[in-house]
Every structure is written in structure tokens, then in C-alpha cells.
């Protein structure tokens, strides 16, 4: 028969409680008997003795009172004496009744009855004496009192004394009986207690052996599993909880073994993916570094390069550290070009336009180098965030152009000098007018694969081209347009696809410059073969796309693996928690400690998987951010209230210096996670007596800084601090462990907000983390057909410090929202063209607009109107006229 641990414990409980109950019952009966004995010892003799003594005393007093009756001199004295006799007689009757009631034993009962009968026999004598006294026969009364009355009194006194002696005798006997009974009861209790102890000990030993031996087997298997032997299984007999635990252990071991095999396969695939990414990155890097082109990335907000290829170091003489310094680029533009170039880049970047420009760059040895920058702009939140591009050395071309320009000027003075320069340059230079080529140098006809100059000049410029250019335009027609444009503008630079004599196409950069030779307007064309450059650029783009695709596949792979791992680990942890919280499961300290270790390790694993999933969702854009205006003080306060206990435990003081009403625009849940991660890290690395301070840095109204005076961060770790693929986690001041993913996750959250997460730290002096959000000014749209009403509402909103946008009806409002969505809409109902009801319907049907909160303001305050606007999706309803002290708090619900 299978008995559970609960059943075994119930049997043990019954085996202990049942004997104890019997002992208690016997003890109760013995004590009842003992109480009766005590009652007989102390109540019976004492009551009888006292009653006997009182009766004796009252009898004597009654005898004296009878004498007073006989000897009374007047009627008043006689009446008083008779009353005293009656009172004493009544008391004696009562006392004798007590004796008769409480005396024990047949002998005692008979003695009490005899005494009572003697007293009753005395009453007629007493009455006779009173009658004689009343009749005036005192002598006869005295004679009876001294004779017959005195005899009865002596007889009564003797009987009372006999009663008292009997009570004393019985009391002594009862004392001896009680003592013997108490000793007997004590020995019985001792024997019963010893019996219960022996039975309980035997049962406890049995249960201990039954439970602990099986738990030791579980413990041994768990230890082997902890060191990596996942083939463990345990067979435990019985149908109790420990047997069930053994079955669950075997199931867990099987799942762990399967999960381990799955992980091995997945890790192998991940390694192959990482190797593919590394190969792609190496291919990209090799391709970039094998060219003379410098690839770069530039952080717009920090105004510094964040990536630069090695070519920049070897070609321009500056170290990588110098290139990555803030302001390096602008500082090293030749001073005559700086203002023009910086302004040009600023204007184009703010509009998000790709652009390119040429300027002189100052080499490390001090000389100027002509370069060309080709720039693409990445926007976030309507502002530039990252610039990418290629820096191309065009110094040779510029020198050549300068030489050609100089040659042009000199050619006007001396045709001979011009011809010498024209023919002597290695660049492909030609002259043409509106009809075609006039002249070319040797480098030109050799570039096109001709045998001589005449073979080249006999064709139209469009004939040295494929039928169509890459943009789909016919080459002949397009070439004529470019020539005409160059004549009109005085010069033109463009890319063109040419073909050589053998039909092979090549990419060229064409510079057309308008000249005047011998009074005739001509164009000088400088053609540069950029085929290799184009191939390099295409290879760079392809390598970049391959790297991005590999990264995307890696993120997707990590997301899928993390999701598949979370379910079995959650199930395992749930089962272990059930065992841990089962009060009926008796585990010793070692077993409990081992179970706690497994639980904590599992919880850390699940936490790490959750973080990986969060990071993956952010990187793949699967997070639906709910951006709204928040009070930074309230957000920080809520985070700190959940962390105050852990800080107090370590003796760390947390100071919240975030001002009330600090306006930020963020997703409350995600931004709270960023602050929580930063504060948690500060607590982790600080020790007793340290302080963690949250404040707003001067001049950075939308930045929350978390400062601590902990140990600081090694400067070598800072560049990798926010990279999820590089493990930077270290133990806290008390050995606390983390996943190492909190900061990368926070960094990705801030990037998703269009913000930035940065750090300043010095070893031994603490750290400051800055969570900077974009500055967003609230935009409120007021819709009303009356300009005066719009003006009045705008005046009320002045203290909100928001940008006010106005519309005269619902249709105008929809156009405004499409171009520039507001953060809050305040709308009237009765308007021409499109009223408030129709506007609400149209707004809430649009996916991108329906989340914008709407406050309806109308003179129609009827219940039906308010119910309808709420049904259509409005957030609030106010009746006109507007009261500012009621209106502003409603607005503050959406814009602090």
C-alpha cells in the first residue's frame, strides 16, 4: 500500500496524540477523584466542625437567654429575651441542618439525626417556660429551667462535641487516602509519558530513514547534474511526494538533456552565422582598406567620427585617436574653405539630403590636400543623427585642373605653351564646340583605345557612349544637352558612361569648362576613368548590405532561440518553486541550499533570456512605443520607491534632485526601465556610506543623470559598455552578479527614442550616466470656426508653453494633422464644412491619428452630446464658457 508523506505524518501524529489523549483522560479522571478527595478532606470536616462548634455555642447562648426570660423584671426585657431565644433557636436549626447535610458515613448521619432530635425535644420545654413566665409563674419556670432544661442543654452539648470529634477523625483518614492517591497518580503519569516518548522516537527514526535516504539519492544525482552529467535518473519507490519529486527530477533531467543538445546545435549554428558575419566584415574591411577611398561614420550630435578606415591614418598622417576626437573634421578643414563647407554640410544634413563637396584638408605635415566628401544622412525624429560617407583624394585632379586653368590663361598669351601643357599632361583632355570634338591630347585617344587622334576626333561625343545612359536617356541627345548646359553655365561636372573602341564600357567623371580661344567659345573636357572607383563603391555598398543582412539574421536567430528556451526554463522553475514552497516537504539545510542555488541560477537564466528578447525586439522594430509627455520627477520617484529597500540593505543613500514638473517625451515603461537599470547598477557597485544622486545637468533640460561615488569604470571597458555582443559585466561590491545586458538594452531604448545614453567615469572616483531624450515641444491643435474663441483658448494655454496650431473646421484640421501631427487636439462641435462629430469619426478611423487625445469644448452641454463624443473616442468634454482652473488640469492630463 502506497502512503504519502502527509499520510505518514498523520499516522505519526495519531500514534502520539492517541496515547497522550488516553493519558490525559486518565489523568483527568484521577484529578477528578483527587478533587473529590480534597473536597472531602477540606470541605466535609471543616464545615461539620464549624457547624458543630457554632451549634454548641448557640445552644449555650440560648440557655443563657432562657435564664434572661425567667429573670426579666418587666415585659420589655422579657420580650427582648424571648426574641433572642427565637433567633438563636433558628440559627441552631440551620447549623444542625448543615451538619446533617454534609456529614459522611452512616455513623455520622445517625449521630447528626440524634442531635437534631434532642434539640427538637427541647423546644416544648422552652415553650412551657415562656408560658409560665408570661403567666407570672416565675418560680415554676426557674425550676424547669434548672432541672429539665439544664439536662437537655448538657445533652445537646455532649452531642455537638461528639459530632466534632467524629469530623476530626474522618478528616485525618481522608488526608492519608488523598496522599496515597496523589503518589499513585504521579507514577501512572510517569509511566505513560515514558511509553509515549519511546513510541514517538521509534516512529521518528522510521520516518527519518524513510525520507532522508531517498533525499540523499536525489541530492547525489543533483550534484552530478550540477557538474555537467545530464544523464542522471533516480528511481524512488513509494507513492508519496518524494517519489513524485524523483519523477519530476527525471523529467527535468530529460528536458535539460534535450535542451542541452538543442543548445549545442543552436550554438553551432550561431557560431557558423558569426563566422559568416566575421568573413563578411573581413571582406568589407579588406575591400575598403585596399582602396584609396576612406569610409567613415560621423555622429552628428557629438560632432565626431565614430568610425574611420585605416586608409585615413596612412594617407593623411593622423592617428585613429585624433580622427575620433570631437570637432576634428571642422578643425582640419583649410581655414579659407571652413565656413563655406561647414555651412553647406549643415544645411544639407538638416534637410536629410545626400550631398558631396570638395575642399582642402590639412595634412598632418601641414600641407593642404584636395578631397571630395560624398555624404548620406540618417535621420531620427526629424533631425540628423548619423552621417556616412567616403572621403576621396582628388588632390591630383585638382592640381591638374589648376594646371589646366593656369595653362588656359597662359595659352591666351602663348598657344605654344598651351599646346605643350595640353599634350604633356597624363589626364585625358579634349576641346569641343557645339558640333563636336575639336582637339584632344594623346592621353585621350589612348584612353579610348584609338590608334591616333584623328580616329577619336571623327566621332560625335555621343558616339563614344552606349546607346543609352544608366538613367535611360539616349546618349546622343543627352550629350548635346550637357554641352549646351556647360556653355550656358560656364562649366559642368557630371558622371558619364563611355565606351572604348572595342565596345567595352567604362565609368567616367567629366569636367566641362567654358573657354575662349582665338575669340571662339569652346569647351575644355577633362575625362577621368572612375571605373575602379565605382566598382569599389559598389563593392562597399554590397558588403555593407551583406553585413546588415547577416546582422538581421543573427538578431532573428537570437530572438527565435531565446523564445524557444524561455518556455522549458519557465516550466522547470515553476516546478522547483512548488517544491521549495511546499511546507510539508522536509529538507535538510544542504538540500534546501542546493534547491536555492538551482532556483537562483534558473531565475538568472530566464532574466537573461528576457533581456535578449527585449534587445531583439528593439533592434527588429517590434516594440510599439507609446510616447507621451511625462513628469520626470514622478517617473524617477516611482523607480526609486521600488529600489529603496535594496539600497537601505547596503547602506546606500539615494538622492532625487529631479525637479517637479520636468517635462520629457517618452514611453513611460521603457524609459522607467532605463532609469531602473542605471540606478540598479549604481547600487550594485556602491558600498556602505556611498551616495547615488539623480539630477538634471545644467543646460540639458531633457536629460536625467545618475551619479554615484562608487569605484568607477576602467576606461578600456567604456567603448564596449553598450554593446550587447560583448560581455562587460563584473561582480558588485557584495559579489552580486548580473546578465551584462542591462546597459546595452538601455542604450537601444534610448536610441529608439531618438536619444542617447552616455557615460563619464574615472577609476576610483565614480561614474555619471546621462540618459538624454530629444527636446520635444508640445503641439496643440485648436479647432473652432470662431477666431476669437481660438484666441481665448490659446491665451488660457499660455502657461502650458506649447506650440499652438489652429484650424477653422474639421477638414482643415485633418490637413494640418497629416502634415504635422499634434500631441493634443481641442475641438468645437458645431462648425461649417466638417463638424466635430464627423472630425472625430475621421480621426479615429486613421491608424496613425487615432491615438491623438481629443478634448471637446462646446456650448452644447447636454448629456446626449457628451455621451456621443465619448462614444466617438474623445478623451474629455468641457462645456462653454471655459473656466481656466477647470480647463488647465484637464490639459495637464495629456501634457504636463
Q: Measured on Cα atoms, how large is the radius of gyration?
A: 56 Å
Distance N to C terminus: 71 Å
Which segments are poorly predicted (pLDDT under 50) over 5 or more consecutive residues?
none
CATH architecture descriptor text of the largest domain:
Up-down Bundle
User: Please, how many helices?
Assistant: 24
CATH fold label of the largest domain: A middle domain of Talin 1
Structural class: alpha+beta
Give the helix proportion (percent range). Answer: 55-70%
Shape: elongated
> How many domains is the backbone divided into?
5
Beta strand %: 15-25%
CATH class label of the largest domain: Mainly Alpha
* Largest sheet strand order: 2-1-5-4-3
Number of E-type strands = 22
Mean pLDDT, as a whole number?
A: 78
Oligomer: single chain
Largest sheet features: 5 strands, antiparallel
What's the short version?
Keywords: Kinase, Membrane, Phosphoprotein, Transferase, Transmembrane, Transmembrane helix. The protein is of the alpha+beta class and 896 residues long. The radius of gyration is 56 Å and the shape is elongated.
